[in-house]
Design brief:
The chain is an alpha+beta fold and about 350 residues long. It has ten helices and ten strands. The chain is globular.
């Protein structure tokens, strides 16, 4: 990691640590906007910081570490799509999005269709905080649109992971305004590939941050908790379990860094999308393993409402399903409420 990205990591972590886990969404969102984190991936020619996808992922990794409720990935997908689309009239809205981030995006592929006469129908699932957004980014293989949320019907999706507020939005025979379109045809295919590539890298970053925090919390607990007059951290079997988790997380982090480095120059290409899926698959698997082990190694307090340990497990399990192409059954399972 470059010195600049290391400094960005440290400053982001400092802010999030001062707020603590479980901070209200609007409170953390104010910090995200005011500190210019939405500018990280925007080119300098558009008054951004010009740090690229790596900086965006660094910020999301720290947000994942703190179980942040900030809809940063969804807002970043919209901003990146507007920038990548080039000379679209919608690019004029970029300054407003960077200061207010009034648009959001789904974390799974939209299940929509566009008729020959330009009408939009279908359901977009797992949209983060769409009730607080003016527009939503949607796409098919041949169209990318920024659609007003007022054009659809919202339905809250109750989730086991309560750190994120997800919604479904259904469009029924909506007449598409020409001003909503970001790309069409071959240009849309490239842009969709870029959107899904960035989404998967952001989910991978979130998973690595969360897995790291879960392991750190577990090691701290084992160091402090005593049994038979000795800290649990001195028991060899428990040390081996933590060491295995550290190795798995380090492997996921190494793959993530390598694939992101390979893909960064070719976002929008199929090879980059494949690399992102590889990173996401290993990172989310490591997160789930770390979270499951954390709950067990924390003993009775692991699933208490007062301790954040169980939140990592719930977020990890949902992360595994987000981003998948065929998600209907899996998403229903992952987002149902448990009593």
């Amino acid at each position: 990691m470059s010195e600049l990205l290391t400094e960005l990591t440290d400053s982001t972590r400092s802010v999030l640590d001062s707020l603590g886990p479980g901070t209200a969404e609007e409170t953390i969102w104010t910090q995200v906007v005011d500190l210019g984190w939405l500018l990280a991936g925007v080119p300098e020619s558009l008054d951004g910081l010009g740090l690229g996808p790596a900086a965006v992922c660094v910020i999301q990794q720290e947000l994942g570490r703190s179980l942040s409720a900030a809809r940063y990935p969804a807002a970043t997908l919209v901003i990146d799509a507007l920038v990548a689309a080039g000379e679209s009239p919608l690019l004029e809205r970029l300054p407003l999005l960077l200061t207010e981030a009034l648009a959001t995006a789904p974390l799974v592929p939209p299940d929509i269709e566009i008729s020959d006469d330009g009408r939009l129908s279908g359901t977009v699932r797992a949209v983060w905080s769409v009730d607080r957004a003016s527009d939503i980014l949607v796409w098919t293989n041949s169209d990318v649109l920024l659609v007003p949320t007022s054009a659809g019907a919202l339905k809250a999706r109750p989730t086991w992971d309560e750190t994120r507020r997800l919604f479904d939005i259904t469009f029924t025979d909506v007449n598409i305004d020409s001003g909503w379109r970001l790309a069409q045809g071959a240009a849309a295919e490239t842009l969709v590939c870029r959107i899904e590539t960035l989404r998967d890298f952001l989910l991978a970053a979130d998973a690595i941050g969360g897995a790291t925090a879960a392991l750190e919390s577990t090691v701290n607990y084992l160091t402090e908790r005593k049994q038979f007059g000795r800290p649990l951290a001195l028991f060899q079997a428990l040390k081996h379990r933590c060491a295995d988790l550290k190795a798995h997380i380090a492997a996921a982090e190494a793959l993530f860094a390598d694939t992101l480095n390979q893909a960064e120059s070719g976002f929008g290409q199929p090879q980059a999308a494949l690399l992102a899926r590889e990173a996401k698959l290993l990172a989310t698997a490591a997160y789930t393993e770390a979270a499951e082990e954390a709950v067990q190694l924390h003993g009775g307090i692991g699933m208490t409402a007062e301790h954040p340990c169980h939140l990592y497990l719930k977020r990890a399990q949902l992360n595994e399903h987000l981003g998948r192409r065929r998600v209907s059954d899996e998403l229903e399972l992952a987002t149902c409420q448990f009593s």
